[in-house]
Design goal:
Blueprint (H helix, E strand, L loop, with lengths): L21 E2 L2 E2 L7 H40 L15 H5 L32 H8 L3 E8 L2 E9 L5 E4 L1 H4 L4 E5 L5 E10 L4 E5 L21 E6 L9 E16 L2 E8 L11 E4 L4 E8 H5 L8 E5 H14 L6 E2 L2 E5 L2 H6 L6 E6 L4 H4 L7 E5 L2 E2 L3 H8 L7 E8 L2 E8 L1 E2 L3
Antiparallel strand pairs: 1-2, 3-4, 3-6, 4-5, 5-8, 6-7, 7-8, 9-10, 9-12, 10-11, 11-14, 12-13, 13-14, 15-22, 16-17, 17-18, 18-19, 18-20, 20-21
Length: 425
Amino acid sequence: MDEQKKYNPKYSREEEPWDDGSWQTGSTRPPKDRGGILALMLILIIFLCGIITVLGILNVKLFNQLQVKQEASASISFTPEETEPMMISAEEATQPPSRNSGDGVSLFLQESPQSVDNVPQEQGLSLQEIYETNIPSVVSISCQTQGGSSTGTGVVLSEKGYIVTNAHVVDNALSVSVQLTDERVFEASLVGADEISDLAVLRIGADDLTPALFGDSNVLRVGDSVTAIGDPLGTEFRGSFTDGIISAINRDVAIDGRTMSLIQTNAALNSGNSGGPLINCYGQVIGITTMKIGVFANKTGVEGLGFAIPSATVKDIVDQLITQGYVSGRPTLGMTGESLSTFYQYYYRLPAGLYITEVESGSYAAYYGIEPGDILLAIDDQRITDMDGLNTALYNHQVGDVVTVLIYRGGQQYSVELTLMENKK
């Protein structure tokens, strides 16, 4: 058994050869001094308490100031001197208001002049007069289609029930109804439509309408004041009145492969305004609103870029639609159809194309044996999948031109040359 180590007092703790710093129950060294750390923590706590106290005092002061302001606001009273409006001159209206004396705080309401007419141009009508003159001639149009419903605006052409609107407003409509400003509603029949100019003429069973006055769009200048009336976003906002200027004239805009020469305006136009009037400062309709550029440019749309069909173009198209039901010189293949859905293409293993639903008797298409159920694939190597594509392919052709069409039937493709005829529908 080892001998127990003995302590020699002549050695210090550091010099004792056998002292390894521990003794059975623990360390033989004295505990470390942590007084500095405790002092630092105490100072930090005192500092934080001071900040909290200062913030509390500031919060109380701000609350008191807010209370004072609220009490002062509550003491303001509206004290017009007379209960009935008093006519004053424009010079009096420009004088500074008199100050109330006394310790009390009171808001003084100065008498204001009555509303005056806003005349946009010399010798023109006021905005109020333009609206009152034209609103009886503006109608709301509602259409029922296979896919649901659509709305637009129209302008009365004659007291015997003729109305002009956009062709795209009544496109593929199963039924069309027209609501007048006096709340009467009529079922409308389609007199004629022209997709190239985007104009259509309707007729309702009424003979007491108020026709609009049309002006000559050829004399317009950039900067002329104009207004528009229509049903933006539907009949909920029917009869909305907006104003602006002519931003450009003879603006060429490409839509679905065709180019339209339009009037550009910054008057607010939105979906539902289509077919409504663009009016000059004399109360004359100088255009039929057709679109807002944002609808075709991007999903979000842009502001201040609206377009209207010039009244000179409207007259030419409308006169032909009323007298003969169509516009002379428009080419057609003599067939109509509808696009094939992706489901039908995969389910019946059919190619993408225009499914022909009707072939006009007497047309070259009927003569060469094209019939409903066939699928039109292409015209002159231009793929066709819907009626818009078909119309686009024909816009650059004239009546009498010969085109090559590709037809699909029973798993086979056939190429046929057809002569374009005049569209009289």
